[in-house]
Design a protein that fits this description.
With 189 residues, the protein is mainly α. The protein has seven helices and three strands. α4 (66-80) crosses α5.
Length: 189
């Protein structure tokens, strides 16, 4: 039962049951119910304003594919672990943008692994021949949290629709429309 259902049905009936047998139960019920509805309406507004009880966050988090969550967290970790949430969100945005673009695969893991484990590949950490197991600690924990948020909520895209990125210090052999510079990365369409 939702919070609204509980407020509307379960709790008022407890008040009515307590009043049964009282000589003025009808009058008392009307007064209690009137006060109850005003109080419950105020509580419901506060609960809904806080985002509690809607189930939206829980439903969105439950809808995140565990494999895609892990793949996106790895990409955020290896590409932007020193850049904090903003840099990680930008990497996540590129992955989501590619998933929406018909030229790229439609799952996060497939986007990240496109090209295989030998160069050329789409994400250099994936095909660099090194291990991909992150070190336990704050950067990995943050990567997991930001990846879940990006996949569940699909927040505003800080990259302006970018499909490509590279480290600012590198000089790629291609030219594209630049959309943003975030952290140590430059983003392109």
């Amino acid at each position: 039962m939702t919070v609204a259902g509980l407020l509307r049905y379960a709790l008022p009936t407890m008040f009515v049951r307590r009043e049964q047998g009282h000589p003025s139960s009808r009058v008392m019920s009307a007064c209690v119910m009137s006060a109850w509805w005003r109080a419950s309406a105020a509580i419901a507004v506060l609960v809904l304003a806080a985002g509690c009880g809607s189930g939206k966050d829980e439903d969105a988090a439950a809808a995140v594919d565990p494999a895609d969550h892990h793949c996106v967290a790895l990409a955020m970790y290896w590409e932007a672990r020193g850049e904090g949430e903003e840099g990680m969100r930008a990497i996540g945005a590129v992955i989501l943008n590619r998933m929406e673009d018909e030229r790229f695969p439609d799952t996060a893991c497939a986007v990240i692994r496109e090209g295989g484990e030998t160069p050329p590949c789409q994400f250099s950490w994936w095909c660099d021949g090194l291990g991909d197991t992150p070190e336990p600690g704050e950067p990995w924990t943050l990567s997991l949290a930001v990846a879940r948020e990006v996949l569940a909520e699909k927040p505003r895209d800080p990259t302006g629709g970018a499909l490509f990125f590279h480290r600012a210090a590198s000089d790629p052999p291609w030219t594209r429309e630049k959309t943003a510079e975030i952290g140590d990365h430059v983003f392109y369409r």
